[in-house]
Specification:
The chain is of the alpha/beta class. The protein has two domains: about 140 residues, Lyase, Ornithine Decarboxylase, Chain A, domain 1, CATH 2.40.37; about 230 residues, TIM Barrel (Alpha-Beta Barrel). The chain is built from eleven helices and 18 strands. Helix 5 links the parallel strand 5 and strand 6. The chain binds pyridoxal-5'-phosphate (PLP). The site of pyridoxal-5'-phosphate has 17 residues, from helix 10.
Length: about 375
């Protein structure tokens, strides 16, 4: 029997009724399942979920419930978490650098795909079962919030050699890439797809699959990103670049799968005379990512009577709860002039890289998860 958490009608209603003094992450299973369905209907291939974006059991459980069967895991811990939720889940181990002990543990989990970006890492796979090796390709592509190519990936020349070597070892040869996170520009994928086809052609290898990574932007500012436009472009470019040798497609969204399913509710601890606001969570907690990819403008301020505060706004310095002076948001946040102690801030689209990164520094950084229908 599965444990069913109580379902509250809405985050707003919950905040109005309980005025929570500690951070709350409101989770809507309905929204998560709808996003999973959107990916599975719209993406022209296999959709896997990058577990690192949010590994809460309720998230993994609801993704399985929405029909997701394959997951990108980066560590033995994530493999165990996934297996607990779904013993039959297909696991792709797409962290290209692994210790030999990790390789042995992962082999025990029955990994179906390994990403590799250099001969040394490929060499560590000598003894594992001959499943898929996906060569991680790297190009200088801009368009994302930050560059994933800076840490992992083989340049095209190296990728040609790796692909040949993986095929010679008896692995199913594939290519994978990651255009960089919070990427809204379809061109970033197109450039990679063209180069992947070129690498496969030069290697003389028929690719089984092309994994176009994650990176799909979530809704942080302005209009929501057009995921279908990205899916369509990926589809068209793959056909154009590979022709008759078109591989199966795979994607591995983290952020765009889970972000919209959560709203983070924080409380104002005080407003200083200079206008600075102190919150009960910050960059050591669920807002860690704001330091790296900037503010979101999807913030509502809820007063004691449960109504949203509007009117004139002033950019304010916002501090988190710890005693560390770098515990502040990267830029001033425009907030209503009427904001006061006890108000709540609701950050929409807060499901990715929030709970997953949060630290317990100074005794803060916990977020209660409350299941709601309406975020
Ligand atoms: C982090 C990561 C992802 C997910 O990236 P998002 O930007 O959250 O979609 C996918 N694949 C790999 C290999 C990753 O490291």
């Amino acid at each position: 029997m599965q444990h069913q958490p109580p379902l509250w009608p809405s985050s707003l209603g919950y905040v109005e009724r309980f005025r929570p003094d500690n951070p709350v992450l409101f989770f809507s299973p309905r929204v998560l399942q709808a996003t999973a369905t959107r990916f599975q209907r719209g993406f022209p291939g296999l959709v896997t979920y990058a577990v690192k974006a949010n590994d809460l059991p309720v998230v993994l459980d609801n993704l399985v419930g929405a029909g997701m069967s394959a997951f990108d895991v980066a560590s033995p811990h994530e493999m165990a978490a996934m297996r607990r939720v779904q013993p039959s889940a297909v696991l792709h181990y797409h962290n290209p650098v692994r210790s030999r002990d990790e390789v042995a543990i992962a082999a025990g989990y029955g990994i179906q795909s390994w990403s590799v970006d250099c001969p040394r890492e490929l060499g560590k796979l000598t003894d594992v079962q001959r499943t898929e090796v996906s060569v991680r390709l790297r190009l200088p592509v801009s368009g994302a919030a930050y560059d994933f190519g800076a840490k992992f990936g083989a340049d095209p020349d190296q990728a040609v050699d790796l692909l040949r070597e993986a095929a010679a070892m008896g692995f199913t040869p594939s290519i994978t890439f990651h255009p960089g996170t919070q990427c809204a520009d379809p061109q970033a994928w197109a450039v990679y797809i063209v180069e992947a086809a070129e690498v496969a052609r030069r290697a003389g290898v028929q690719l089984a699959r092309l994994n176009v990574g994650g990176g799909f932007a979530s809704h942080r500012n302005g209009e929501a990103p057009d995921l279908e436009a990205i899916f369509d472009r990926i589809d068209q470019e793959t056909t154009r670049a590979f022709g008759a040798a078109r591989p199966e497609l795979v994607c591995e969204p983290g952020r765009a799968m889970v972000a919209e399913a959560f709203t983070l509710a924080l409380r104002v601890k005080t407003v200083r005379r200079d206008g600075a606001v102190f919150l009960n969570d910050g960059v050591y907690g669920a807002l860690t990512e704001l330091r790296d990819i900037g503010l979101t403008d999807r913030v509502r301020v809820i007063g004691a009577d449960g109504s949203e505060k509007g009117g004139a706004m002033t950019p304010r310095v916002v501090f988190g709860p710890t005693c560390d002076s770098i515990d502040r948001l990267p830029d001033p946040v425009p907030l209503p002039n009427g904001i006061e102690e006890g108000d709540h801030l609701l950050f929409a689209g807060a499901g990715a890289y929030s709970a997953a990164i949060s630290t317990r520094f100074n005794g803060y950084g916990t977020q209660e998860v409350v299941t709601v229908d309406q975020l």
